[in-house]
Specification:
Elements lengths: L11 H12 L9 E2 L2 E2 H13 L7 E4 L2 H11 L7 E5 L4 H12 L3 E5 L9 H11 L3 E5 L11 H10 L3 E5 L11 H4 L3 E5 L11 E5 L37 H16 L4 H18 L2 E3 L8 E5 L5 H12 L4 E3 L16 E5 L6 H16 L2
Parallel strand pairs: 4-5, 4-6, 6-7, 7-8
Antiparallel strand pairs: 1-2, 3-9, 8-9, 10-11, 11-13, 12-13
Helix pairs in contact: 1-8, 2-8, 3-4, 5-6, 9-11, 10-11
Length: about 375
């Protein structure tokens, strides 16, 4: 019940592909040279289709979305006195780079969320209009409440007032439809180990045609070794060092498996309703954003701190959940949960029986107060 942290189970094909990759004789390791298959380019093509991107080469592959966010935030040409607009719903993978930018004289303005963790487009637009930032950053969906934000509308507002737009898709890619080119998104970071069902150590950054970032990480590329700077062309412009070939074989297998076995969103929504209704019926305080929403739910059990309840659920009932601030400290005040929450996050594999098990355990805790 912790798929917003990392997905489990993975398709069997993921582990098999990774095992095969480490057992076979490699070719050019940094380019994915098993049996002349460039696994990085194959994964890029699958990702481009999923993202609504026509040029796969605009997707740089790295180790996770934090890498991609750092490349975007530190690679964008910000100067002292410039303004960056973000939101209270951002994850620490955005907040901490922004704090470092503040130390160099960049002003950061945060848009508050509503009581469900969603950023309202009209409030976003008003703030963009007021502060005229050079760069806007948006968490596509809250990792705390699951509320999905209107990326297309907010990107349009950013562009209307001269700002570039960076989208954090860590929670959404693989679960909700994404159309980056249609929406006009300038940059978008993603991870492979959540709803893409891939292994950890995969993720990256999409950069729109016409945008060139100053690479945050530099080093060997395997090509154009005579250059003192990173090659100009994407994706190698941002891909320094040897890539994680075994994990990208796993991600490629996951992407192909997901394409052949699309998730039943109606079933996932039904499981979420079952969970939310059941928790509310027990007397828990449940945060329930309106659709669109990820299969993520935050709640508290009266009489327990989130940490106390989470420890009992894990130790006594073998229910893996997440508790606390969820790396999103700015959001807790907005949603009225300053001490944090218990978070449960479902996947396509979550069964009705598993939901019943969770509700039974929470009922035990609530009745023991």
């Amino acid at each position: 019940m912790n798929n917003a942290a990392t997905s489990w189970p993975k398709p069997e094909e993921v582990g098999e592909a990774m095992a095969k990759a480490v057992r076979r004789l490699p070719g050019a390791a940094n380019r994915g040279g098993i049996e002349d298959v460039n696994v990085f380019d194959e994964a890029r093509r699958e990702l481009a289709s999923l993202m609504g991107v026509s040029c796969p080469e605009r997707i740089a592959l790295g180790c996770n979305s934090t890498w991609g966010l750092n490349e975007a935030l530190f690679g964008w040409p910000l100067q002292e006195g410039d303004t960056v607009l973000a939101t209270n719903a951002e994850h620490n993978s955005v907040l901490r780079p922004l704090y470092r930018l503040e130390q160099s004289g960049v002003r950061v303005v945060y848009v508050p969320a509503d009581e469900t963790g969603r950023i309202r487009p009209e409030r976003w637009k008003e703030t963009v209009q007021k502060y005229r930032p050079r760069l806007c950053v948006l968490n596509h969906a809250s990792n705390v409440t699951g509320a999905v934000n209107d990326a297309e509308a907010m990107c349009a507002s950013a562009h209307a007032y001269g700002a570039a737009f960076l989208l954090d898709m860590s929670q959404t890619l693989g679960c909700v439809p994404v159309r980056l080119e249609k929406w006009g998104v300038d940059m978008a970071a993603f991870t492979g180990h959540k709803y893409l069902l891939g292994p950890q150590g995969t993720g990256g950054l999409y950069v729109r045609q016409g945008i060139s970032l100053r690479p945050y990480m530099v080093g060997g590329t395997g090509i154009k070794s005579d250059l003192k700077e990173m090659p100009d062309e994407m994706p190698v412009h941002l891909e320094a060092g040897t890539g994680n070939e075994p994990s990208y074989h796993g991600l490629l297998a996951a992407l192909r498996w997901s394409r052949e076995h699309p998730a039943d969103r109606d079933i996932i929504s039904a499981r979420m309703r079952q969970l939310a209704d059941g928790l509310a019926g027990i007397g828990c305080q449940v945060i329930r954003p309106e659709e669109p929403c990820m299969p993520v739910l935050s709640f508290v059990i009266p009489g327990y701190t989130p940490e106390e309840a989470g420890d009992i659920l894990t130790d006594s009932y073998d229910i893996i959940c997440r508790t606390g601030l969820h790396c999103a400290p700015g959001l807790m005040k907005d949603i009225g949960m300053p001490q944090g929450t218990i978070r449960l996050s479902l996947s396509r594999f979550t069964s009705e029986k598993e939901i019943e098990t969770v509700l039974s355990a929470v009922r035990d805790l609530a009745e023991s107060v």
